[in-house]
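Same chain as my last thread, 259 residues:
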Amino acid sequence: MAHSGLESALAAAAPPATLAVALIALWAWLSADGKIPAYLLPSPGVLLAALRNSAPVLLRHATATTTEAVGGFVIGSAAGVLAAILLAASRLVRHSVFPLALASQAVPIAAITPLIVLLIGRGLPAILTVVAITAFFPTLINVTRGLRAADLGYHELLHSLSATRAQRLRMIELPSALPYLFAALKIGAASSFISAIVGEWIGSNLGLGYLIVISGQYFKIPTLWAAVVVGSALTLALVGLVVLAERLSMPWLPKEDFS
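reply #2:
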């Protein structure tokens, strides 16, 4: 069984790994041939050297960005779940707030980041707020729909057994909302590091976003791209942790549903 699972994992990883190797090879060839200017995108070898030589600096800034991204993600997701429970419990509140929550998704986070920094000030609280907002609304919208998607037959059964509202929530609605929750968490995880980096452009003197801005100003292009690569790797790691938690929480679902 374990051998079969390993084979399945390798088979699933093979296509994206093959594509990544092909793209890196194409990138290296175009760089060596001069088709890609070094001042726009360094070659893979130069980028690897920048990752190695700037490792202490990258680690310091990546630690700050990870703290902001993960902290804001957890705060925003938890607040979104609690708000969704309140919305699902009250039709009036749901009909009043839910359309506004949907409309809020049309506002780019980069547009409100300067306002948040102006109101709160530069530093960790402002960036945590930016990331939390990014994670909050997808969680609120998805979990509200998930709670409302519970089978009415189960509700009628528990009603006939005189179950309380808390019991119906725990036994029917929350399990029904789990797939919706993890769909929102994957969106929030993918967006959290982006939001943290955008916030650092404006409201911080530390973090990968700040390092990207400073490296661009001083034309340290390899360091700039090294920071981008580290941010991308951290984003993939957080999304991977969410997918792992999804598999552990819902082992009855087929593997094709975890994506």
